[in-house]
Amino acid sequence: IDKQFRGELEAHSLGEMIAAGTAVLGSAGYVAMERVTGSLHGRNGSFVLQHSGTMTRGEPQLSMTVVPDSGPGELVGLAGSMRIQVEDGRHAYTFDYRLA
Prior knowledge:
Layout: E1 2-5, E2 9-21, E3 28-40, E4 43-56, E5 59-66, E6 79-87, E7 90-98
Antiparallel strand pairs: 1-2, 2-3, 3-4, 4-5, 5-6, 6-7
């Protein structure tokens, strides 16, 4: 994983993903860990996102959660989750979070 975030979260992320497909078209699963480094609402630092996703015959289910206590410094106490929207092959993210 190698991404750039723009908006309230101005950051770069790097991560590792493991995926497995099945013999049924459109069914698969993946897990990943992703370190995000940058600025969130004006606070600098980094945090880790944990991914867990499945696709059941084309129907996606995805969880992206901030790993508890993974945000040191100005991001201490960060908690939240991220949702992904895919349109025309482009990815957009909604980050629901709270800062201590």
